[in-house]
Structures are given as C-alpha cells and as structure tokens.
Amino acid sequence: MSMSISPLANPKGTKKLCELCQKPAYLQCTKCRVTFYCDVAHQQADWNSIHEKVCELLSSIRTPAPFSCFQADRDIHHMQTLKRLEHITQLSHAAAKSWVSEGKYSEAVPAAQLSLRCAIDIYGRDVVELVPAYLLLAEASIGLGSLSQAESCLSQAEWMVMKNPGCSRTVLHLLHRTLGHLHSAKGDYSTALLHFANDVYYASEEFGLDSVVTARGYFLMANVFMKQEKTDITNSLYSEVASIWHAHLSKLMECYSQKEHEGAQYFDVAQCAEVNQMLSVMLEAQQQDVNTHPAYSTTTFNSLGQRALLSHSLAILWFLCNDHKKALEFGRKAAEFSQQCEHNSLAESIQDLIQQAETHLNPEQTPIIHH
Questions:
Q1: Which run of H or of E encompasses 99?
Q2: How far apart are CA 239 and CA 236, in angstroms?
C-alpha cells in the first residue's frame, strides 16, 4: 500500500509533503503514486477515511498531462481534470459528512481536507464555494475537542461569506448552525442560541417552517435549553421536531406503499445516522423525564402518545433504510405505547408497518395481524 520515497527520484529542490499534515513526506502510495505521507499512521488514516475511494482518480489529476502543441487538446484535458476534481470533491464531502454524522470525527478530517483542496483547485481561494468544506472541518474539530482549530475554520468561512453578500440562505443557515455548535461546545449558551435562531431563520426562509431542515435547528436549540435546565422550552421544541419528522416520514412511507418511488434510496448513510440520532435522543430524553418525574407522563411531550410517535418514526426510518429487524423492533415498541393511549390514532399505521416488516423478514410466511 505504501513504499519509501527515494530522494533521487525527485528533482533537485523539490519536496513531497504529507497529504494530511503537510510535513515532509517519506512514504508514497504504491497504487496511485501521487500521494505522499510522513508516516504509516497518516497513510492508514487517509486510506480509511477517503483515499481508498479516490486513489485511481487522484492519479489522473495529479499526473502531468503529455505536452501538446494544440490548444484544443489542452482545453479538453483541462475540462476533464475539472470534472474529475468535481467528482472527487463530491465523494470526499459526502464521506466526511457521513463520518461526522456517525460521530467518527478523526475519520472525517482527511476526507474534509481533500474536499477543501479540490474545491480550491476548482474555484480558487476566498470564494463562497469553499464554505461547506470549512464547515465540515470545523464540525470534525469540534467533535475532537479542537475548538481553536474549529474557530480558525469558521473564521475563514465567515470571511468568505462577508466577501460574498449574495450567498445563498442555505450557506448562511449552515454557517450559523456550525457556529452554534462551536459556542455550545464552549459553554456560551446565549451566543449558541443566537446562532441557532439564525440557523432556523435562514432555513425556514429557504425550506419552510415545517421542513425537516428547519426542524434540525429547533432540535439544536432544544439541546441548549436542556443544558440550561429549561425543561418546558426543551419539551415544546422537541414536540415540534417530533411532529415534523413523523409527518415527513409518514409521507415517505405512503409513497413507498404506493410504489411511487420504487427502488428509491430515501436516506443515505449520513442522513440515516443523523435522523436516528435526533429521534433517539428525544425518545431517551422523554423516557428519562418520565422515570425521574412520573407526573410528566401526562404532559404533552412526555406522554405515551409522544413515545408512540417517536418509536413509530424510528420504525419508519429503519424500514425505509432497509433494516427491517430494527423497523420491527421499534414498530412493536410503538404499538405497546399506542395501546396504552386514550386516543390511539396511530394504531392502524403502526400495525401496517409491523406487518410489512414481518413480511420482509419472513417472505414465505403469512403475516401475523396484531390486535
């Protein structure tokens, strides 16, 4: 996978730098032969994060093109290189986002770094197109506890946004969301709430108040209020998030049942991990409240109905992600909570989901109808 670099192989005065830390490199990837590392640890980290997926692609863009005296040939090669760079940027960005969603922040860093370098090669420096990569690096740094590194990345992102006042509301909501994460990690909850409020504002302007994108902002605000021990506000926001996501997932399930998007991938790995984390946190939080304060079981959020709704949402999520075992597990939990509710409005849809999950797990058996 790697080999030592012979100093005689490099022209005089040139140095190879490590792909991850930019220190002098002493190892070379034996497959692409255009990527270098300071040690085996960095080579392995890069391979696990992203290099395995882009090794051959990097070879084609980092190898000098044969000389051509025809401008048309040079233009064609340039366009091909840009397309490959765009492809690598997308692959590395998706990989970094997936690692962050799974909480694997060390693995996210090499992929985010590659995404940033490729974006710079495509667009140049100090442009708003680099902001998503800087935000991913900041998120990974926050997860690793490297808050100074996160601040540096966010300063770069803020500077680029300031230089491009016409940037999209999507970029603005993502910037404020990441700034909120940073200040929350620093314990500056007032500033964190301000940024999350801006996140919600720009997201709602772009996607609508009832969008699942906006709901993520509500969820992050609720987490801060929870740290401030403001239970009523936390529960109110969690309830809103739960309702938005249940409505969204129910619509997707309806489309699935009607085969409107047969064979469609409803969630990628990163999205599934993020939604699962969000719904699970809310379900666990309300269960803890019920255990600590039994009287909460009669309130809006901490009711059996809310637990049924969240469990049903998780069941739909896992069903659409083709994990029918987990779908059945949460479906049965939802049914248990639902049966104890006075107004059992979810019962039919829960039983339908359980039946479909059982059919997928046991295709040759007649589905069992639960009552």
A1: helix 71-101
A2: 5
